[in-house]
Design goal:
The complex is a heterodimer. By secondary structure, chain A is an alpha+beta fold. In chain A, strands 1-2-3-4-5-6-7-8 form an 8-stranded antiparallel beta barrel. In chain A, a hairpin with a 4-residue loop joins strand 2 and strand 3. The longest helix of chain A has 23 residues. Chain B is mainly beta. The radius of gyration of chain B is 31 Å and the shape is globular. The chains are: A alpha+beta, B mainly beta. At the A-B interface, helix 2, strand 5 and strand 6 of A face strand 30, helix 3 and helix 4 of B.
Amino acid sequence: MRAINKKIKISFWLVCFLLVLNCCFPGQQVQAEKNQYRAISTSFWIGYYLPQDSTFSKIYPKEKEVCGFVEFSKIWAKRMEITLGLGGSYFTGHPLNINDSPNIDKASLTLAPSYLQLSYFLRYGQEQRIVPYLGAGFDAWGYREKTETDTIEGCKYGYHYLAGLRFLLDWLDPKSAAYSYRDFGIENTYLVLEARSNRIDNFGGNKLDLSGPIYRLGFLMEF
Amino acid sequence: MAFLPPVKIGVEDPNTVIWSSVDPDLTLGTINALYEFNNHLYMGVTDLGASEGTEVALWRSKDSGDYQLSSTYWKSIYCQQLNDANNTIISCFQEAGNKLYLGTENSLEKCEVWSFNKEAAYPDTLIKEHSWEIGNRRIAAMAVAGDVLYAVTRNDDGSQLWYYKENENKFLETPSGMWQQDPNQTNPLSLESLGSYLFLGFDTDEIHRLTYWDPNGDSEQINALNDANYSLYDANHPILADDTHLCWIYADKTNGYLYLGTKRTKESNTTNTNGFTLWKSSLLPIITINSPKPPLNAFHKGNLDIEWETTKGGYYQINLTEFKDPNGSSDPNIEAHFPHAIDPNRNVPPASSLNTTRIIGPDLKIEGNEALEGIYTIEIFWDLDPNRNPITKDKETYPVRFSFKYDTTDPSIPAIIDVSPGNEKLRIRWTEATDILSGVKGYYIHWEPLEDPNIEAFSGPYNPVYVGGNNYTINQANGQQYLEYTISQLVNYLNYRVAISAIDYANNESDKSLESFGTPEPGRGLMDLLGETGGCFLNVLHHNNKIRLYNENVRFSL
């Protein structure tokens, strides 16, 4: 009985592996018009930022806040990409009294992250449907906090590393993909899922620490 | 009918010399309605030659009660909202409370009522109060009687009377039913009020006199609404020839006269053809209640003092028609609660002897210890013949009925839930108070700095803040409803003492709540808490660059 179960398990994982293999390396699709290597790409992102500083959550008690990004990337080598990213996020809350109880005044914090990032793509074919990637980069995050009595603004530096998956969308509707290429020069469109860990504390400084993960979903167009 | 015999006072034709027209430079289209409101005269105008088809326009005179017949004296008000809603005609105006209501006709074969507030400096924002179903073609007229706004609509198959339900912000049907359209295409033209009567005039010979109806009252009063139907051909009151149609009804409420405008439609041997005639009624006994006045409409502890006035001398009766205890139960033993109600001989001297048109009626005072707490409904009416025994009301007595509450119980004491600090302010949250009879009108927030704890609480020069109406917020947290108000312009880091009391519509004030304390202070943000002072590498670069350029500027005069 145990042997049968083992066989079933092995068969299941074999099927899964073949399915993934099929997704990653589809049959030959001849798109003669498309270039072998994409030159540049633009992507738009939306995600959740989860700051980890405990003081942060006392004033801005929402557990997570929506953030948005726009990125511009350039192929550097066959599997490398260099990316410039800009984003923004907005928090509202209440400042604290001397005894740490919430004050009735309002406080707002605007974050404007920018970063330069290098990514390595596990890309083995031209029309690979799922492209995993890893990356890391340097960050400069602008911040502006406004309370009733004060406005403090500045910038914090740090780094991040990430892992993600790009899902090719063109094969879902090849006709539209062909039109996008003909009319707008869009070679490929991807849906992208990404998890990144940020360490934004002036490389180990104290005071304000904006470190925390970001989980985000993006739409990417390669030209 | 009491306004007979009429006196013919007016013109036969609007083209005769006693009328002057406004400056012809003022090109208006068709004027459908005219009304004085808040020291301005308003005109509802339909512009048939507008670029986008028929458009409605609202014109307003300048700030003066002395109206000028000059084009520079009038200004068109942009009322895009009305045109966007496909209104083509402002058919009537009516003031009620502190609003001016506009009745309209719509190109979609329905009508609407819009309004704007007296406090609005310029009526550039109109509020749609109600929109009728298709088939209710036009708001023919509106009037206020007994503090209720009424509107009569001209419908596809007749006409109908509606009333405005204040707390629901919409018009509802009155129990008058539908006046069916007759073969002669009878249309409602005018609606006017005198005392508690409504006069509804049609474009034929009909005037309906409708008696007092309390929309919030008992259902048995409803049937009394459609009280009398008068024909202008009444044999006993031959006011008009049978070729005459009614054009307008106007009530002079200050002096107590009713005016009719009529038009002849056929050639007559005795009168001019196609002429207009203005008729004036005999003096009518129009009663005004000065106390209690709505919306307060409630007496607090002490004597009940009912003050009223009238336009005509004579004999008046004051009756208590209904008494309800604070729980709303009617008591049939009315007289026991209102010992001075029946007085058949309240003689009021004629106005002419007092050289005035308004006569103050004898006050009706009842000692506080004689009256019971509850809801009173009282009726005052003029009696034609004081020698009749017993005195009965008839159609010509012009009764005025009004209700008030005699409330001697204080509201419940509110409780402070929380006093929270802010920068130079304190936010106070408290539980809602209750008052069975007249209801809670608002709250007093008593506050003072706690400089000297030996001074008796709230005996200093700090006036309590009254919060009522819309100047506090009602919130809900953890299943509990609470009210909230923030006192501002306080001194940071100074301790304050706070208490709340409730006040009802009869001005009874509850005891103060238990005291609470709070100290205003500015909150500390994230940067402040972490000791972050701002600035960054780029900022420093930016500043240095500025300094360098400045120095270069000096050196090279760039």
